[in-house]
């Protein structure tokens, strides 16, 4: 199983942001040699390691910050483009909203929020909504990809 912050199939909660405001994604790779990931931000452009791209490469035991200015409101997908990881549910949805009083990107002065994520092994419900956030399919249905 491959997850994003412990959630699979679009169940990661509260990834909300405002259009035309700078966002920083802090990405950390865990695992071993088979855990090479490509974080693909559908419909968006990132700046990472000095390059403009729509994907960030993440290797085990590496950390990268990707900066993004989302332009179009809507619900967007971030996913790992490694086929088996995507099939196993390594995907999340994030919402870009039209926020009132949006400041031009260059004039932003905002509050920096820090979130710390601890990793420890526990029994976990990887899909608490019970359905795939992208397709709406039931995750508990016998024979589904999540029924492994």
TrEMBL record:
<dbReference type="GO" id="GO:0046872">
    <property type="term" value="F:metal ion binding"/>
</dbReference>
<dbReference type="InterPro" id="IPR008972">
    <property type="entry name" value="Cupredoxin"/>
</dbReference>
<dbReference type="InterPro" id="IPR033138">
    <property type="entry name" value="Cu_oxidase_CS"/>
</dbReference>
<protein>
    <submittedName>
        <fullName>Hephaestin isoform c</fullName>
    </submittedName>
</protein>
<keyword id="KW-0479">Metal-binding</keyword>
């Amino acid at each position: 199983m491959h997850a994003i912050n412990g959630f699979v199939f679009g169940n990661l909660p509260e990834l909300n942001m405002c259009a035309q405001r700078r966002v920083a994604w802090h990405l950390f790779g865990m695992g071993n040699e088979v855990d090479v990931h490509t974080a693909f931000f559908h419909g968006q452009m990132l700046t990472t390691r000095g390059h403009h791209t729509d994907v960030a490469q993440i290797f085990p035991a590496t950390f990268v910050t990707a900066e993004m200015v989302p332009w179009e409101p809507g619900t967007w997908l971030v996913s790992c483009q490694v086929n088996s990881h995507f099939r196993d549910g390594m995907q999340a949805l994030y919402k870009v909203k039209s926020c009132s009083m949006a400041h031009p990107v260059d004039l932003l002065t905002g509050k920096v929020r820090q979130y710390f994520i601890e990793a420890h092994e526990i029994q976990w419900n990887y899909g608490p909504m019970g359905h795939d956030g992208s397709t709406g399919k039931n995750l508990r249905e016998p024979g589904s990809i999540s029924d492994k």
